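Example S7 (structure tokens).
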């Protein structure tokens, strides 16, 4: 949603976008630690597929904007998140 709204605001031609997320959880014992000692509880791999004619600068901006999504910010407290973009 964040990507779509950003592209609309910039008047960039985005014909379609799809996002695939893969969750790889780490051993649940990490949750038993006290809050200060807790580390990441898993990894999330995000694949963003864009159907567009955007240039490299626009694609790099979309990659940056995708990490500013409110859901991403919340999940980043507990998960390591990696992004890949395909066009």
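Recovered sequence:
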């Amino acid at each position: 949603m964040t990507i779509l709204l950003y592209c609309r605001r910039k008047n960039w031609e985005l014909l379609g976008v799809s996002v695939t997320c893969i969750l790889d959880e780490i051993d649940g014992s990490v949750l038993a630690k006290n809050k200060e000692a807790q580390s990441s509880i898993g990894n999330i791999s995000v694949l963003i597929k864009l159907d567009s004619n955007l240039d490299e600068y626009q694609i790099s901006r979309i990659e940056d904007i995708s990490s500013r999504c409110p859901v991403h910010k919340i999940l980043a407290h507990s998960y390591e998140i990696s992004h890949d973009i395909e066009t």
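Notes on this example. The helical segments are 2-10, 56-66, 70-75.
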